[in-house]
Every structure is written in C-alpha cells, then in structure tokens.
Amino acid sequence: PKPSNVATPEPTTKEGGSKILPKDALNDNSRLIDGEPVTMDADEDLILEDDYERAEMVRQRKDDERAIAKANERGVRVVNAFEGYAFDYGMRPGDKLLAVDGWKIDAGTSVEDVRNRLRGTPGSSVDITFERPGVDGDVTITLPRTVVQISDVKLVTLVGKAEDGIGYIQLSGFTADAGREVRNGIFALQQATEEASGGERSLQGLILDLRGNPGGLLTSAVDVSSLLVPKGSEIVSAKGRGFPGVTYKSRVDPILDPKTKLAVLINDSTASAAEIVSGAVQDLDVGVIVGSGRTFGKGLVQNVEELPFDTALKFTVAKYYTPSGRCIQSTNYKEGGGTDGKYKASKVEEKDKKVFFTTNGREVKDGGGVAVDYKATAPKASALEVTLLRSGIMDDFASEWSKKNQLTKNFEVDDSLYRDFQTFVMEREKSGDIKLDAFYRGPIEDLQRALKLSGYKGSTKELQQLQATIKSDMEKDFAKYKKDIKEDIATGILSRYLPESMLINRSIQTDQQVLAAVKLLGNQNQFNKILARTETSEQDQSKMIAKAGSMVGNPMLEETGAKLKVNF
Q1: Cβ atoms within 10 A of the Cβ of 181, count?
Q2: For 75-129, how does the pLDDT look when each residue is reduced to its tens digit (9 = 90+)?
Q3: Within 10 Å of residue 227's Cβ, how many Cβ atoms?
Q4: Which end of the chain is more exposed for a tag (fewer CB within 10 A), N or C?
Q5: Catalytic member of 237, 272, 399, 495
Q6: How many CA atoms lie within 13 A of 102 on its CB side?
Q7: What are the residues whose beta carbons fall under 8 Å from the beta carbon of 543, sequence distance 6 or more?
Q8: In sequence order, which residues have a C-beta less than 8 Å from that of residue 7 and are 6 or more positions away?
C-alpha cells in the first residue's frame, strides 16, 4: 500500500524491521548505540515521503528533459526500410527525414505528422528529403505510393552445403498469403536442390522456423499445415459453449515429399496459429519439433465485435484442439478473484495435464503449449547485451561509424572497432545518455525508497555499494560477452547497407538451434527414432501422402510455374 504523507512504520516481523526489506536491514543498528535507542535529527537522517518524492520528481524531470533534447537532436529517423518498397528506392535505417514534398520537418514535428504526409493515394508519388551519416549534403528520392504488403516469409534459403539439400524457411506470421508464400518457398528449395546436385538429389530436409511467430489467421494455419500433412488429415478443431463445433481437414495432397525430413523450430513466443501448425506436425508425426522448451500455450478462438466510438471488443468463443484431441491452452480463466474480482487466471498444473497419443503412439500432453521433441538450447543474452540493445546505442554507434568509414566486402568487427565501441558507450554513460545498470535500476530504486522511508541508514549505504558493484561487473561483461556484442555491433552497421533477408541469412549461419536442426535432419536413424518410426510405418506414411495420379495439371504447380521432379 502507498504510504501517506507522514512517514509510518512498515509492517513488521516478530524480530522487528520491515517484511519487504533485506535481511541486513533487519539487523541494522545504525540507530542504536550500545543497544540503546538514540534520538535522531529528522532533517538529517530521515527522508520523509514528500521530500523523497520531490527529489525523485526533480531527477525524473531532468531525465525527461535530457531524453527530449536527445529526441529533438535525432529528429524523425527511419527505423526499418522494407524490401520491395522503401529499401529498393534507396531508404536505409538511420536516415534522418528533413522534408516530405517540400514540407519541412523540425524539432516540433511528430512521427504521426510525418506518417500522414507520407501516406496518400496508391499510384501517386512523394518526394522525401533526408540526410544520411557518411553522405555529404541532403538526398532527395521520389517514392511511388502503393499498398504495402509485408511478406510473412522472411527468408527462403538452403543451409549448409547446397548439395546436401537442407532447406530453411522463416515464417513470421499468418496473414492471408502465408500459405501461398510457404508453398512457393518449398518449390524454390526443391528446384535449388536439384540444380545444386545436378538433378541427382531432391530436397532432403526442411526447417520451418516459427520462433517468435505470434500467430494470425486460423485459416492460414490450416493452409500451411496442408502443405505438410497427409490429405484427409485432421489439422485442428474448435469447440465452445454456444459455438458450433468445427473441424478443419487437409483437402489437398502435400507438396512436401514424404521422404523429406521436417523440423519445426519453436520457442516460448510461438503462439496461436503457429501452435496449430506445430501441433499438427507433432500429432501426425510428420516432423520433429525443435527448441528449448514449450510454445506459448494460446489455444483460444476469439472474435472481434465492433463497438461505437471506433472501439471494438475481442472475446473468446471457443478453444481449439490439435489432431490428437488435446488443447494446448496453458492458462485457465474462471469467475471470481483477480484484482477486480471478476475473473481468476491460473496456469494449468502438471498434475492436471492429460496424456494423448500421436499417430505413431508417442505420448503428448495438453495444457501447456507444444513441447519440443528434440531439445536445442538457445543462448541467453546477458544483462549488458539487453541493456545495450534496449538503449538504442547500437544504432547511434552505427551512425557514427558510417560517418567515418566505408563498408568493405570482408567487413568484420575486429578488436580495435570493439574498443572504439566500448569507449563510445563509456562516454555516453558519463553524460547520462545510457545507464549500464538500467536492467536492475527499477527494483533497486524501489528498495532504496523503502530503506530511506524506514530510516535504515546502514543498509542504504550497502545498497549504494551494490549499485557500484553491479555497474563494475557489467563493465567487465564487455570481455565476457565479447562475441555476442560484436555480432550485435555488426548487425547494427550492416543494417545500414543490407536488406533484412540478407541480415537474417547471415544470422542463421551461427544460430545454434538452426545448426542443431541441420544436424538432426542429416541423421535419418535419430530422426526416425524420435518419431517412433519403423520401416513399415514410414512406408505406410508414404502411401498416405503419395498421389494416386500424375502431378500434371495440378493447379498449384500451374500457378507458380515451377518445374518439379517428384518421385513417388
């Protein structure tokens, strides 16, 4: 509870002291001499809440003023330039916009004002003037206005040796075109493999990367799943109170050869429609789920109803179920409880999870997302790396680097450039533009406030020492996490020159989970063992997936115009 304007004692334990304070504070004898209480000067040793809040307001105002000044200095800058649109016409991340169709952008111009000026009737054009670090003078380009459609598939490529035939598709969402984009990606990988092997090999393995995919349209999830699972397979069903039950099945033959091994990459941010695909692949035993844990666990079907005053209500109408019959929803909602007394949310406990079985008889459980079949641990970012990325200092350094350097073919962040970055960060830290202990600052300030209000003088000093120690340790992390931070610096600089797809392609070359998936797909015995496959079950699955007739006249093939050599 928030204290009143008069300092009041915190809730105490039997031993005395505050329940919310550390153990050291309970033994704080700064106000005792030989065990006897000493009268203290309140103006000198106690900080009343009003005084503390006033000091906090002054500090916060100074931080806000510094942030505003920095924002005005930076101006309105490009955060990302999409391929096929602004990137292709010359815009790059970090560009500072100066004018739109002659309308000048100043310190008082908001991002919303600039956005409204940039938008217009499709087919018309807009002149954009900007300045770029490392380029003399202002630059003006003419950009045609068009309806921007961001692709769900961010990258399609072969990984490892091209002749090995291991493909990779990164799918970031499930909009209306997700199925078509994935289908075209598979066709492209099949063709690329045949060309690389001189027609001797077809696509041997496919990695579908759904990490960080928040989901989207249920119908698009069904479209993507239909490319991978046998015809007639149940993909997902939905059931709810007062909601007509519905089941979605694959009505087309998959375009992925049954001999092509499939791995689906997931993490705890893989959710909703992405979990439908993951669940179908796992339950039907057509592929292996690879990652470090479980998916998010969102198994709810929701509708959106428009309301007056440009508002809308999203409400849950049903739960969806994977082919084995399990619901992967990880949170239960019940009436009663909660902060407003209207509902209560709780995680599904392990003892309440039920066991279901895949096509090959493997056990899977409900109530907690889709669990991985093959564990591949993802490296965790250090507190220093997270702080640097959140602060935006990588972009600032990239801009400064671009002013003095030219990108070369064999660019890399060497030790000299890394030292320059460290110096850059330390200078910004001294000026107050970045706080290296920002990752811990919130909890520390809360504790500091409680200590001051309670008058624990000795513990307050210890807390200050802790802050200094944390800062010192994080500075040492520049050496400990050198490799990871170097990669972040390189990405920041290269994003000024390369499109997003090339940056992603570069990153997966050292991605530990992608490399683990490649290794798995190269081991047929291990792959079959995970899926509990036998020679007989593998032949049966091939018969289920194989077409009864010729591929000639298939509308999917005619739409893409791809030439495909398929052996059934």
Answers
A1: 19
A2: 899 988 999 899 999 999 989 999 999 999 998 888 999 999 999 999 999 999 9
A3: 21
A4: N
A5: 272
A6: 0
A7: none
A8: 46, 48, 49, 453
Task: Classify 426 as helix, strand or coil.
Answer: helix
- The verdict on whether 272 is a catalytic residue reads yes
Has 298 been annotated as catalytic?
yes
Q: Which of 96, 298, 365, 452 is catalytic?
A: 298
Q: How many residues does the chain have?
A: 568
Condensed to tens digits (0 to 9), the pLDDT of residues 444-501 reads 888 877 877 777 777 777 887 888 888 888 888 999 999 999 999 999 999 999 999 9
What does the radius of gyration of the chain's CA atoms come to, in whole angstroms?
29
- Contact between 183 and 227 under an 8 Å Cβ cutoff? The reply is yes
Please choose, from the candidates 488, 498, 468, 381, the residue with its C-alpha nearest in 3D space to the C-alpha of residue 425: 488
Tokens of 65: 């003023």
Q: Using an 8 Å Cβ cutoff, are 290 and 517 in contact?
A: yes
Q: Rounded distance, CA 502 to CA 433, Å?
A: 31
As given in the structure block, the two tokens for residue 45 are 């040793």
| CA torsion through residues 70, 74, 77, 79, sign | negative
From 351, 331, 328, 220, select the one nearest 275 (Cα to Cα).
328
- Name residues whose C-beta falls within 8 Å of residue 35's C-beta, 6 or more positions apart in sequence: none
CB 449 within 8 A of CB 53: no
